[in-house]
Amino acid sequence: MGYYLLLIQLLFALVGLFLFWQSVGYFRRMWRYKRLKAMPFPKSYESILQEIHQYKVLSSLHKEKIHLLILIFIDQKEFVGAKMTINDEIRVIIAFYACLMRLGFELGEKDHVSTVIVYPEHFLVNNGHTSGGIYHDEISVLEGQSANGTVVISWQDIKHDIAQQQKDNVIIHEFAHELDFEDGFADGTPILEGSRYKMWSEVFSTAFDTLKEQLNNGDISERSVLLGSYALKNEAEFFAVCSERFFETPQVFKTYFPNIYQELKLFYKLDTKQLFKDVLKT
Q1: Would you list the DSSP string of 85-126?
Q2: Strand, helix or coil at 280?
């Protein structure tokens, strides 16, 4: 009896210690949040953001929120330069697009990235694997990669995407993968409200399968050109590319994929076509 009583006491002590640690973490986060909220947004940061067309057309209310999100992001994330030095321009631009995706969420919601590694240009990844008892050494050249709360990204490609102001955005692409992987599966379906899974699956699967069949048949359409063949690699890439178009070319994306646009609008809690209505893009 005494042995079991000791185990129960130990269990309660561990639970109490866990709750105490959680409360300490909560109050620390709240203190940091209040400190950052009271800080004026640096003029140097705003000067950097003036180069981004999406930022310039945001309402004053949305700018106020994204300023706070950017300050929190830069304060909480570890930026690591791989063969390069991290400066404010890199921090602010990456933070802006990562926070733009979460503009419709509550503070702290769907925020699981802890580390951002930045390469000066494309980087090499060894995707070696064993098949039939034979090891195959495969080297891939990547613009970005993400897994387990870490996003790896090429600064060269970030600058290229911003300069082109077209449909691609490697930051949005990689952070979309992190949202997708929030449930532990990179399957193109992030965590949704319970009632949304059936409709999401129907909408995305129908579009993916249709475009995949067209690609296999050599049928090129304006819809397939908008997304590109890389989107059809698998469902995870399809979601990431659709997220890019949702934020970069919402007008044309909604025209060609109205059902997917609606699902992303509900997921991100943003109507990007309305949000960027003053941005003329084709």
Answers
A1: ---HHHHHHHHHHHHHTTTTSPTTTT----EEEEESS-EEEE
A2: coil
Q: Are 279 and 252 in contact (CB under 8 A)?
A: no
Residue whose tokens read 């044309």: 252
Name the residue with tokens 């030095």: 85
* Residue 83 pLDDT: 87
Relative orientation angle of helices 88-100 and 170-180, to the nearest 10 degrees:
50
Decide if 32 contacts 254 (C-beta within 8 A).
no
pTM: 0.82
One-character DSSP codes across 189-220: -----GGGHHHHHHHHHHHHHHHHHHHHTT--
Q: What is the pLDDT of residues 240-277, one digit of tens each?
A: 999 999 999 999 999 999 999 999 999 999 999 999 98
Q: For residue 59, what is the DSSP state?
A: -
CA atoms of 243 and 241, how far apart (whole Å): 5
What do you get for the CA distance between the two ends of the chain, in Å? 75
Largest CA distance in the chain: 75
Write b or e for each residue in 66-93: b if 16 or more Cβ atoms lie within 10 A of its Cβ, otherwise e. bbbbbbbbbeebebeeeeeebeebbbbb
- Residues 180, 242: Cα–Cα separation, whole Å: 12
d(CA 135, CA 118): 30
As given in the structure block, the two tokens for residue 100 are 């733009």
pLDDT in tens, 185-225: 889 999 998 889 999 999 999 999 999 999 888 888 888 89
In this structure, the number of other CB atoms found within 10 A of the CB of residue 28 comes to 10
Q: How far apart are alpha carbons 68 and 66 in whole angstroms?
A: 5
The span from the CA of 174 to the CA of 153, in Å, is 8
